Amino acid sequence: GINAEYGGQIFNVSAPDHPTYEELKLKGAQLAGWKGSKADIKLTPVPDHLDRVKNWEWNVIINPQKAYNLLGWRPTHVGVINELPIYYASWKAAKHSKSQ
């Protein structure tokens, strides 16, 4: 089992490809049909009064290193960016089936 000292912690186990949040959002938008490019986006910082830490700024790298180091976890998939079309298609199929 996992050592109790890791209980209650959050681990990223989704991205052996280390995408930035920017890459993740752009790929998701493109899969949803958006035809723009990175140059079309105007970034607006998250206002401090919204009580959000800057963990979702565009330059944040999604990295599972903590899971590697503390848990010995190793990915068995190719990466979230490469698999995003599968995730999106699954979400669309589930959404469609719920609406019928």
Could you give a short description of this structure?
The protein has 100 residues and is mostly helical. It has helices at residues 21-31, 65-71, 80-98.
Description:
The chain is an all-alpha fold and 100 residues long. Helix 1 (21-31) packs across helix 3. It has helices spanning 21-31, 65-71, 80-98. The protein is built from three helices and no strands. The longest helix is centred in the last third of the chain and has 19 residues, at 80-98. It is globular and about 45 Å long.
| Radius of gyration, CA atoms, in whole angstroms | 17 Å
Give, in order, the helices and strands: HHH
Shape from CA axes? globular
Mean pLDDT: 81
Structural class: mainly alpha
Features:
single chain, 100 residues, mainly alpha, 3 helices
SSE layout and pairing:
Elements: H1 21-31, H2 65-71, H3 80-98
Helix pairs in contact: 1-3
